[in-house]
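To close the chapter, one final illustration. This time we ask the reader to focus less on the individual chains and more on the assembly as a whole: which components sit near each other, and how the overall shape emerges from the parts.
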Amino acid sequence: MSGRTWRFDLPAPKSDAVSRSDGPWREGWRRLRRNRAASIALWFLVAFGSVSLLAPILPLPSPVALELQDEPQAPTPPWTSFIEHGFHDEYWQLGAIDRALVSVRLHVFGDRQTAHWLGTDSKGRDLLSRIVWGSRTSFGVALMATLTSLLIGVTWGAFAGLAGGRTDALMMRLVDVLYSLPFIFVVIFLVTILNGWRDVLERRWGIDREVLFYLAIGAVYWLTMARVVRGQVLSLRHAEFVQAARQMGASSARILFVHVLPNVMSIVIVYLTLSIPAVMLFESFLTFLGLGIEAPKVSWGSLAVDSAEAINPLHVDWWLVVWPAAAMASTLLALNVLGDGLRDALDPKLRHAHRPSVPPEIAHSSTVRAEPAP
Amino acid sequence: MIRFALRRLGWFVLTLWAVVSVSFVLMHAVRGGPFDGERALSPAIEANLNARYHLDWPLLKQYAAYVGPLELGPHRAHFLGGDGMRTFGGVLAGDLGPSFRYRDFSVNDILAQSLPISLALGSVALMFALVVGLSAGLASALWRGTAWDVGLRLFATLGIALPNFVIAGFLVILFVFLVPLFPVAGYGTWRHLVLPGIALGLPFAAYIARLTRTGMLDALSQDWIRTAHAKGLPPHVVVLRHALKSGIVPVVSYLGPAVAGILTGSLVIERIFAIPGLGSHFVNSALNRDYTLAMGVTILYTALVCALNALVDVAYTWLDPRVRLGEPS
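The assembled structure is written out below.
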């Protein structure tokens, strides 16, 4: 509060350049824009994300309507047949918003739909539509799971870092022990167990399987986040501006929320971007094993299951393998590239000297029992 | 060193104990017994089965029987093993109990059969990842900025982004149907392990290549490398003897997670290529509520991963003399 009055005593910055380069976020954004690969990845993700978000109003065929036939249809490129009639309004249980969007689509496009540009699967379901609708599911699971892990990880890490001493050591030891567990087993255990209680949970609390699923993933993905945040908090705890705030009588909560967490945010965002593709992979992995998203709902994992089934010695339906793989690979690639770009742009280690620099041993390892010199 | 070993051992035991207890509780929290099948069993048969495997005991007693070679009186669990009636010794005695589903096998028998298969697959994958990853990383560090470098890096990023079952699909199309070199699936000869090994190892090869590149670039810019050049050492000696040793430190620290990841990844790969390893057993056992088998696999994996992590820590000191064991690591 008194920081303000001090500011007024300072001479106003003269050069334009100084006043413009003050915000670390703006600076990070500029750095990101200068990174060609990361910008392309960002635009790709924005484009793909909007298609996936708007899927219900796009004139796509239904992702679940069956057209019974003996074998999958090969792709018909858009230039041979662009639009056809015969849309079936068939979906799984959609949310209210999606349902409304679908009815908008029905009013605008009627029973017109895109022809099978990418072919159909063995049950005659349109592949393009399945990829787009599947991306909604996969993105959704990834986002929710990452947010869950963010919530747990940041709370745990910040608390350990601020508490310090024995509490910190104990909390981080627990993280170490959990780290040495084979994760997939924990998740498979969790998912199987939660499946057993599924009907009860659904009836009593309205928690469906998907929610359980991302809670389970989130519950095991928070470890890295906790370590990173704790390392940052530990090094910020003795930073000059935090000590100054403490001298001025700021409460612990105020120090945490106003001074420490905003400084941790950049590295958290970097890890968030990098863990979204990891969670998406994990989702498809679990769905592949039959533990994730269930039919009729589509996710990229279920597409991978279909493509694994499409490989048989009689006839290789290449489109069932190539298109889902291409969609998955390009999205995950873009997310990874963007994450790397964000790390370069926001990493405090690389920024100029006016920010407290964090030695990597502290930032990335919980085992360094560091009490940084004041 | 001895203090380090003891400390490590302590954590190892603690971790294993935690795994055993937590998975025991979790497995017993699952609704539905291990004998639920398509047909409902008559209550009498189910009671008999439960009695035979001592599922009718109180949970704590079951836990004690599972963990330790404690004397629980004449009512110790007996079961039909591979070689007649046996007494269940408990985890501490190295006995993981009878399998609930594969009625005539003990968990130890199943693990003894499937572990070598998974280990063979895992080592093929790891060797592939190391050889390909290290050479690609070295190449792109030495020819930094050339088309090779850019190509290899793109390939590496792609390898990290693609799930291994998608890679497996492409490999099968390429090397089984288009160019028939390898069998589709199954297990038996070394040829059965090539495709699964590559599919399993490729993402890790990509990551190792990335780490090697960064590590080597970092090492090559150090002063002591300039000194080595100035001494007149031939370039390959400088690169392979001096720079590589510090350049691969990040790779070594990645090996622990990589091995864990390869073990995990084999869950899916074993399923795709129909390899009767540990991974397929685990998934099936979790789905079938074969408590003892699922817990046995988990305990085995945890032990493997912990042991490997300890090995990695030892390897550190050899590569980087500045790291000391025994300090609050």
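Chain B touches chain A through 50 residues (CB under 8 Å). Confidence is low (pLDDT under 50) at residues 80-84 of chain B. With these observations in hand, you are ready for the problems at the end of the chapter.
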